[in-house]
Amino acid sequence: MAKNRFPIWRLIQSELEAEIRSGLIGPGDQLPSESDLAERFAVNRHTVRTALANLAMLGLVRARRGRGVFVDDRPPEYRIDRDSKWSEIERQMNAAPSGRVLAATERPASAVIAGFLDLAEGAPLLLVETVRGAAPALLIYSYHVFDRGRFAGIDEAVRKTGSFTDALAQFGVGRFFRASTWIDCRMPRPREAEALSIPLDAPVLVMMYVDKDAGGRPILYGNAVIPSGSLLVRIDTL
Amino acid sequence: MAKNRFPIWRLIQSELEAEIRSGLIGPGDQLPSESDLAERFAVNRHTVRTALANLAMLGLVRARRGRGVFVDDRPPEYRIDRDSKWSEIERQMNAAPSGRVLAATERPASAVIAGFLDLAEGAPLLLVETVRGAAPALLIYSYHVFDRGRFAGIDEAVRKTGSFTDALAQFGVGRFFRASTWIDCRMPRPREAEALSIPLDAPVLVMMYVDKDAGGRPILYGNAVIPSGSLLVRIDTL
DNA sequence: TCTGATTTGTTCGTATGTATG
DNA sequence: ACATACATACGAACAAATCAG
Q1: Which residue is nearest to nucleotide D8 (CA to C1')?
Q2: Which chain B residues contact residue A188 at CB under 8 A?
Q3: Helices in chain A by DSSP H: which ranges?
Q4: Nearest nucleotide to A42 by CA–C1' distance?
């Protein structure tokens, strides 16, 4: 007998969540009634209700008594292009730079990261961990990796300004651009979950990227950890 | 008292997984010894071993008796550009078209999808669910949404050819291109987990995209559900 | 305005399995 | 072995809001 580690309401939640996040059921659309869903999934209405309550907590739907359950608006989009920066999001949302430095540590460069930053394997790196928020429900946990030889002390500049763009300007980097981006997802680390106010069993989207200056010289390797569903990463390929 | 739903080895696993996936510890690098890790996390060596065993099962590390634990190669990259297609991956991996149609259903278009496909809200859609694999450990679960008026019966063509590119050719669509892509992540639906051979608590990356023909006319709206860590989505912004 | 049907919200009760001590 | 607590799931009933006629 296979033990049923996963409650039924969780499976129902996955089903509905997938349909909503895919857009098959769009903002403003009405979900089938609780009774209909209970019949469709062959469960009690209570079981459907716990699933719906969770979706409401995630901000995906809103229930209105006497009317039904309706799909909420989609999350804001984060467009990936040469000018992708978190500070752009903050500007777009009319939020001030909010970078809070949680830690700044040193470590040697792995071959992968050395390749990204045009450094020798084992070269000393500066790893800066921050939490930033553009809105109450729009937080990211970031790792920024710098060549310590060139950017020693940049963590202090970020502490003061709350912005990497501003901090980099103090190091003579006037403009820089997104060169490459990799996207993956995983479960959060304990401190990420705590800082982002999400449970340990909610997945996170991870955006890894290399920023370069106008001359093509690598500036930083960054990782942005984003709670699932709070931001929709978008790429236009014209 | 906060209830401790998550075992310690799971937290340790998240920590190590994050470092590996980010590239901070790269392919070929050696992890700290089990004893070192046990000390660092202040747990017994057995606890560390369960975490490491799981990482090995995920294909992230490989333990060698008497030598240590080493990071495995990174997953293959899936580059997003105008020519992004699953058939390109298959060609790259020397795999034959392997599309297996699991279901083909009809449903009315939501406002979001109607916008993607230049249709009226409520227009009839054809939703084709498939599983495709380019390698044993490289499966995707796909949803393809078509204008039923234009592409009625395309599910049969996919059943025969195993490829959407080939099936579309039968409908007079010679060439088409990726126009926009959105990326998100979530927990899998039960049938997705089963078809992809992943547990229900492993997150999936979801790639949503609109393909258009050379004239800019929308062809399809697709969703690719990818097991976390099996593929690295990459975007170059030159 | 009234009526009835539909839908969500709330509160009982019952039963079962699992983890804890 | 036993008691307790908790999460899960089902069933019934009713209250409150909404809408169509």
Answers
A1: A7
A2: 14
A3: 8-22, 34-41, 45-57, 86-92, 111-117, 148-151, 154-161, 164-170, 190-196
A4: D10
Hey, which residues does B213 pair with through a beta bridge?
A: B176
Assigned token pair, A94: 């009319």
B177/A237 Cβ within 8 A: yes
Flag whether residue A70 sits within 8 Å of chain B, measured between CB atoms.
Answer: no
Q: How many CA atoms lie within 13 A of B137 on its CB side?
A: 10
pLDDT tens, A132-158?
998 888 999 999 999 999 999 999 999
Whether residue B2 has pLDDT greater than 60: no
Query: Is the CB of residue A191 less than 8 Å from the CB of residue A97?
Result: no
Place of tokens 């078509």: B146
Which residues numbered 3-22 in B keep a CB inside 8 Å of some CB on A? 5-6, 10-11, 14-15, 17-18, 21-22
CB A126 within 8 A of CB A168: no
Question: Residue A35, class by beta-carbon neighbours within 10 Å (0-12 exposed, 13-18 middle, 19+ buried)?
Answer: exposed
B81-125 confidence digits (pLDDT tens): 999 999 888 888 888 888 899 999 999 999 999 999 999 999 999
- List chain D nucleotides near protein: any atom < 7 Å from a Cβ: 7-12, 16-19
Distance CA A113, CA B22 (A): 9
pLDDT digits (tens, 9 = 90+) for B34-89: 999 999 998 989 889 989 999 998 999 999 998 999 999 999 999 999 999 998 88
The closest alpha carbon to A81, from B145, B180, B156, belongs to B180
Single pTM value for the model? 0.93
CB contacts, 8 Å: B29 with chain A = 110-111
User: Percent of chain B at pLDDT above 90?
Assistant: 83
Average pLDDT, chain A: 95
Q: Do A208 and B22 touch (CB under 8 A)?
A: yes
Q: Taking CB atoms and an 8 Å cut-off, how many pairs form between chains A and B?
A: 189
Contact at 8 Å (CB) between A190 and A225?
A: no
User: Distance between CA B237 and CA A173 in Å, rounded?
Assistant: 19
Is A9 within 7 A of strand D by CB distance?
Answer: yes
Distance B111 CA to C7 C1' (A): 24
Whether residue B2 lies within 8 A of chain A, CB to CB, comes out as no
Q: How many CB atoms lie within 10 A of CB A140?
A: 25
